[in-house]
Amino acid sequence: MRPTVHDIAAAAGVSLATVDRVLNQRAGVRTVTREKVEQAIDRIGYVRDVAAANLAKSRVYPLVFILPSGDNSFMRGLEAQVRAAIGRSPVERTDISIVTVPAFNADALVAALDAAREKFPAGVAVVAIDSPDVIAAVDRLRADHIPVLTLVSDLAGSKRDHFAGVDNIAAGRTAASLMGRFLGGRSGPVAVLAGSMLVRDHRERLDGFRAVMTENFPGHVLLPIVEGQDDPALVERLVSQVLAASPEIAGIYSLGAGNRGLIAALKRRKNAAPVCVIAHELTQHTRAALNGGLIDVVLNQDAGHEVRSAIRVLKAKADGVAVLGAQERIRLEIFIKDNLPFEQGSNTEMPFEQGSNQAPEQGRQD
Amino acid sequence: MRPTVHDIAAAAGVSLATVDRVLNQRAGVRTVTREKVEQAIDRIGYVRDVAAANLAKSRVYPLVFILPSGDNSFMRGLEAQVRAAIGRSPVERTDISIVTVPAFNADALVAALDAAREKFPAGVAVVAIDSPDVIAAVDRLRADHIPVLTLVSDLAGSKRDHFAGVDNIAAGRTAASLMGRFLGGRSGPVAVLAGSMLVRDHRERLDGFRAVMTENFPGHVLLPIVEGQDDPALVERLVSQVLAASPEIAGIYSLGAGNRGLIAALKRRKNAAPVCVIAHELTQHTRAALNGGLIDVVLNQDAGHEVRSAIRVLKAKADGVAVLGAQERIRLEIFIKDNLPFEQGSNTEMPFEQGSNQAPEQGRQD
DNA sequence: CTGTTAGCGCATTCAC
DNA sequence: GTGAATGCGCTAACAG
Which of A158, A317, A349 comes nearest B322 by C-beta? Predict the structure, then answer.
C-alpha cells in the first residue's frame, strides 16, 4: 500500500492535523516540527491522494469562460463544447459559467474580465484580444491569485498562466508550404483573407504564411491583406472584388473566419482557372466545401480538446499542481478530403456494449 | 449539493446497504424493494461519485500491455509512454505490467495473451496481429470478462472492446493525395514499402493508398509492394535495389517501420532526380530526415495519447461506464517541416510558475 | 502551537 | 432480505 497521512504522522511522531498543516502549507507549525514532518514525507515517499482530498473538501471549481458572441461557427462550436463540459460538471466538480462579449471589442472584454474578478472564480478562460487594457485586466485577475488561461488566441506580455491553442505561426507556415507545393509549377498571385489584425492568432498566422511564401515561393506575389472581420457577408463582398480584380489569382489563404462568405464567392466564380484554397477551422461549411472540392485544405484546432484541456489546466493551476505538458499540447490538425473524420453525432460509447465490431469506429467521409 | 446515497435511502425509505446492493446490481434484494430504489434514483437524479467509490474500494486496476519487442523506434516510444504511465500509477490507481513478444509472431502473441488471462487483470491492451488464433485468444479473454483493447493495429472479427489507433485506410488515402499533389505534373512510378501484410494497419494503409492513386493519379504506376519486415538493414537493401532498378522513380510511400534503412538508402543516392517521400511515425530519424529535406511528409500517431487513452478506456470498460468518444479518437497527425513540434524534453509544466511568457510554449523546429 | 474528532460519498463486513 | 457500523485518505472544525 502507498503511504498515507497516518504513516507520515507515525514516522514524524506528530498528529494528523500537524501533518495536514505542513502538507497544505498553513501557518501555525514550529519550524522544527515542520522540518521533521517534511523529512518524514520524502523519506517514506508520500504522494497525496488528490481524489480523497477533494472528497474531504467537497471541492468545486467555479470557472468562467469568456467567448466572443456572434455567429462565428467555430466560436459557437467552442461554446457548445463548454456546454458539454457543463453537462459533466457533477463528475468533474466544476461550476462553469459562460460569458459572451462582442468580437474584436477590447473594452467589452475588459469589462467582462473585471466582472469575472468580482466573483472570485477558481479560474478564467478567455479568448484574448491583443490590447494593453486587456493585458492589464488579465494581470488584475492574476494579482488576485485567479488563474487565467488564454483560449485560441494568446496574450503575450500578460501574466496569463497558460495558453490553450495551436501554434499559429506554425499554422501559417504550414499553409504556405502546402499552398506552394500544391500550386506546383502554376504561377499567379496569392490572396490572404484575415479577420482582424487586432487578434494575435490572425497576426501570427499571417507572419508565418508570409515568411514561408517569400522565402520558398517568391514567384507568387502576395496581394494586399483583406480584413473581413470574420463576417460572412463582408467576406463575400471583399473576396468577389479580389477575384474580379485579379482573375489570374492562383491561391487564397483564409486565416480567419467567415468562410461561408468565401465559399459563396467561390461558388459564383464559374469556369475560371482553379484556385488553391486553404482555410481554418472545420465547420459544416468548410467540411462541405472540402468534400465538394472548393477548398483544398482545412487547418483545424479541436475545440473539444481545447475546452477539456483548459478545464484540466485551470483546475491544476488552482490546486498548484503540475500539468502533463504533452497532454495539453493542442495539435494543428490538417484535413484534406481523405482524412475527414466522421461527423460527430453521438459522442459516447455506451457501457456494456458487446458483440462484433466488423465496422471500424473511425472512418472516412464519402 | 448533488444527491448522495443517503438521499436515495431516505427517498426510498430503505437503508444504505440496500441502496448499495441495487446500485452495484448485487443479489439479495426483493424485486419490489429494488424497483422502489431504482425509481428514487432517477427521480432525484443521482450520479455516483466514482472517486469516492474508488476510495472506499481502494480500487486498483491491474493492466497488461503486450507490445512487440525489437528495436522499432515507434514501438520503443510506445513502451516509453507505458513506462511513463507506470510512473503515474499511484495517482491513476493502476498497476501496469509490460509484456514484449517478437514482432509478427502470432504464436508468441497467443501465448502472451493466454498468460495474461491467468492473472485476471482488469484489462489488456495489445498490438494485434491478424490471425484466427489471435482472435480466439482475445475472445477467450473476453469470455472471462476481461476487457481487451487493440493498440495501433486492430483485430477485426474479434470481440475486442475498443481500438486505440488511427484510421489506417484514411492514412493511406491521405498519403496518396499528398503524394499525387506534391508530384504535380512530374511523372514516374511510385514504390510502396511495407513491413508485413500480416498486420492489419499495414494492409489498410496500402488499401487506402492504392485506391486513391489508381482513382486520382493513374499516371503513376505502382511498383510491386516491398516487404521490409520493419527491419532497417533489410529495408535499406530492398530500397537500394528498387532505386537502382527504377531510376526514374517519382515517389516512395513507406507505410511501415525501419525508416532508418530507407533514409540511409536515400542518402547514398546522390544527384538523381528528387523523389517525394512519405513515411509513418515521427521518430528521431524521420524527424531529422524531414528537417533535412529527405522526407516530405510524416504521418504520425501520438503514442502518448494512445497510451493515455488506452488506460482511460480500459478503466472505463472495467467499471462498465461510458467513455467520451471524441476524447478517445486518435488523430492522424500530418507533419511537414513547418509544423514539427518541439522535441519533447521536460514534459511537465511546473506548479507556481510565474513571470512573463514572451516565448511561446509551442513552436517550430528550425 | 498541537492533538482529537467528525465527516466527505461510498463499499463492505457483520448482525438482525 | 435488510440494516447498522466501520473505514478508505484526507480536511477542518474545535479543543487543549
Answer: A349
Same domain? A113 vs A231? no
Per-residue pLDDT tens over the stretch A38-96 = 999 999 999 999 999 999 999 999 999 999 999 999 999 999 999 999 999 988 999 99
| pLDDT tens figures, A124-158 | 999 999 999 999 999 999 999 999 999 999 999 99
Mutate to test the interface with A, among B349, B350, B364 (most CBs of A within 10 A): B349
Q: Which residue is nearest to nucleotide C13 (CA to C1')?
A: B17
Give residue A326's pLDDT band: very low, low, confident or very high (50, 70, 90): confident
Check whether residue A19 and residue A133 sit in a common domain: no
- Closest nt by CA–C1' to B32: D1
What's the domain count of chain B? 3
CA distance B241 to B220: 19
CA of B322 to C1' of C9 (A): 21
Q: What share of chain B is helix, strand, coil (3-state, %, to 5)?
A: 45, 15, 40
The neighbouring-strand residues paired with A123 are A63
Q: Look-up: residue for cell 513571470?
A: B355
CA distance A11 to chain B (A): 20
Name the residue in chain B with its Cα closest to that of A308.
B327
3-state secondary structure of B63: strand
Q: Would residue B345 count as lying in a domain?
A: no
**Does residue A6 approach strand D to less than 7 Å at its CB?**
yes
Strand D nucleotides, any atom under 7 Å from protein beta carbons: they are: 1-5, 7-14
Cell numbers standing for residue A196: 482582424
CA→C1' distance for B159 and C6 (Å): 49
Closest CA to A230 of A186, A252, A182, A198: A198
C-alpha cell belonging to residue A279: 482555410
Domain limits at B176? 168-300
> For B362, which of A167, A305, A350 is closest by C-beta distance?
A167
Residue A356 lies in a domain: no
A348 lies in some domain: no
- The CATH number given to whatever domain includes residue B95 is 3.40.50.2300
Q: A64 and A19 in one domain?
A: no
Q: Residues with Cβ < 8 Å from B85, sequence gap 6 or more? A: B92, B94, B96, B307, B308, B311
CA closest to B359 among chain A residues: A156
Residues A272 and A233 in one domain: yes
Give one DSSP letter per residue of B166-218, joined into a string.
--HHHHHHHHHHHHHHHHTT----EEEEES-TTSHHHHHHHHHHHHHHHHH-T
In this complex, which of B302, B333, B347 lies closest to A325 when CB atoms are compared? B347
